[in-house]
Design a protein that fits this description.
By secondary structure, the protein is mainly beta. It is built from two helices and eleven strands; from the N terminus they run E-H-E-E-E-E-H-E-E-E-E-E-E. It has a single domain, classed as Purple Acid Phosphatase, chain A, domain 2 (4-Layer Sandwich). It starts with a strand and ends with a strand.
């Protein structure tokens, strides 16, 4: 399973379209973790699974979960789980839905970590990054032996210090 994950694009259209176009052929799904600030039917989001962020007016769902090629995925924006302060509440929800991978946004801080056998991914923001100068998104690939999360700049360059490998 391979997923393209982005979040917090805050109205960017050309950049979202370019990122999805760049990776669409190599991924099984595209997740946008909220604050796209685009209408629900916007062309840029037609190939993506989108959840609602605190800045979104469109009626996207608050969360999404599904098993894709044997991998239980969960996505939410994170504002309802107070992710700027703690990951505990989000971890409870990820455990409730049986997620292998939990994706979120809201803080604009790109990160990936594993806790209690769940991999948590925040792709950062392609528009307003925090803790980094470059806007980011990521690809997450699950193989038989590991999960690899690779972060990219919005222009498609690998962020060399943000490649994570989590053994299964």
């Amino acid at each position: 399973m391979k997923a393209l994950i982005l979040s917090d694009s805050h109205g960017l259209v050309e950049e979202v379209e370019a990122i999805i176009s760049r990776h669409r052929a190599e991924v099984d799904l595209v997740l946008h973790c909220g604050d796209s600030e685009l209408p629900e039917q916007h062309q840029a989001l037609q190939q993506a699974i989108v959840v609602r962020g605190n800045c979104d007016a469109s009626p996207f769902p608050d969360e999404w979960s599904e098993t894709v090629l044997g991998v239980a995925l969960y996505a939410t924006h994170g504002h309802k789980y107070n992710v700027k302060m703690t990951y505990v509440t989000l971890s409870y929800r990820a455990e409730e839905v049986g997620a292998h991978i939990a994706c979120f946004g809201h803080s604009h801080v790109a990160t990936a970590f594993k806790e209690n056998d769940i991999i948590y991914i925040n792709p950062g923001s392609i528009r307003l990054p925090r803790d980094r100068k470059e806007g980011t998104y990521c690809l997450c690939e699950r193989t038989e032996t590991e999960t690899i999360v690779t972060f990219y700049t919005k222009d498609g360059d690998v962020v060399e210090d943000m490649i994570y490998s989590f053994p299964l």
